[in-house]
Amino acid sequence: MDQGNGSVVIEFVLLELAQSLGMQFFLFLFFSLFYVGIILANIFIMFTVIFDYHLHSPMYILLANLSLVDLGLSSTTVPRMISDLFSDCKIISFHSCMIQMFFIHVMGGVEMVLLVAMAYDRYTAICKPLHYLTVMNLKMCMLLIAAAWIIGMIHAVSQFVFVINLPFCGPNNVGSFYCDFPRVIKLACVDTYRLQFVVIANSGFISMGTFFFLIASYIFILVTVRQHSSKDLSKAFFTLSAHITVVVLFFTPCMFLYLWPFPTKSLDKFFAIVDFVVTPVLNPAIYTLRNRDMQVAMRRLSRQGVRRELYRYSGLPER
Ligand SMILES: *[C@@H]1O[C@H](CO)[C@@H](O)[C@H](O)[C@H]1NC(C)=O
């Protein structure tokens, strides 16, 4: 079969996550539990925000959209890693590999912009409270979310158009647990130095830039709060430290994957787990465990919502 441009590779080989049966079993349990947790928790957040009108504010709408993207990001790799754990040869077809790379970058790009949008939302709420309602209205929120998806698409397409046309004719061992641009383009049988630079600039420098921008904004917010009163500071510090944790956890693997020139297997494994398994479950955990409004909304939903829905579907009169 020919993929165009004289290429002959029709499938790629991924690395195996664990050699021993015990480790395979452990990772199977670990990934499965976390993946179920990611699905349930993120769907729960989206459901709570959509159905409770008390939460129809920019902060929670952004959060629900982040949950959607977390779910998507984790679904690009985790189900495949789980099903590959016990199979002998980790083969992925050319098309699946391309599709996986594309969606990792769409979702990753959207997540990056959403994190910036959430920082901007907190900045306005904390540093410009008098202007918050005029600046961060629902229209602005929709605009930010639309921008996130457009930027995510551009980010993914601008790398994908180069890679999809590369000829692959030689070795097909990706040397990673999933397909991603920096590893796959090294397998092409043409010189890819320029393309490697495109990927480093488009994924590496952008994630590094976003990371430092986010950290700087959070420090700026904290400094502003500090000038006002120390009681506000401790409250804001809790909210912001949650955001900062997510930002550090999400971006450290990104920066290493795209900028560090010497990939190592154990570090790659650790980073894949952090970005696709840990961060997507962390967002819901942080926002539900530490956020009063979310907890109140959940209790309200579980008390009234479910009962009301049941009545509606059963056709019985509501008491
Ligand atoms: C994402 O944002 C849009 C636009 O503001 C909103 O209508 C939608 O409900 C949000 N998505 C989720 C899953 O909450």
What distinguishing features does this structure have?
319 residues, mainly alpha, Rhopdopsin 7-helix transmembrane proteins, 10 helices, globular, binds 2-acetamido-2-deoxy-beta-D-glucopyranose, transmembrane helix, cell membrane
Topology (SSEs and partners):
Layout lengths: L10 E3 L7 H31 L6 H27 L6 E3 H34 L4 H4 L2 H26 L17 H5 L7 H36 L1 H30 L5 H25 L2 H23 L5
2-acetamido-2-deoxy-beta-D-glucopyranose binds next to helix 1, helix 2 and helix 5.
Could you walk me through the main structural features you see in this protein, from its secondary elements to its overall organization?
There is one protein chain. The chain is mainly alpha-helical and 319 residues long. It has one domain (11-306): Rhodopsin 7-helix transmembrane proteins (Rhopdopsin 7-helix transmembrane proteins, Up-down Bundle). It has helices at 21-51, 58-84, 94-127, 132-135, 138-163, 181-185, 193-228, 230-259, 265-289, 292-314, and strands at 11-13, 91-93. The protein is globular and about 60 Å long. Bound molecules: 2-acetamido-2-deoxy-beta-D-glucopyranose. Putative odorant or sperm cell receptor. Residues 41-287 form the G-protein coupled receptors family 1 profile domain.
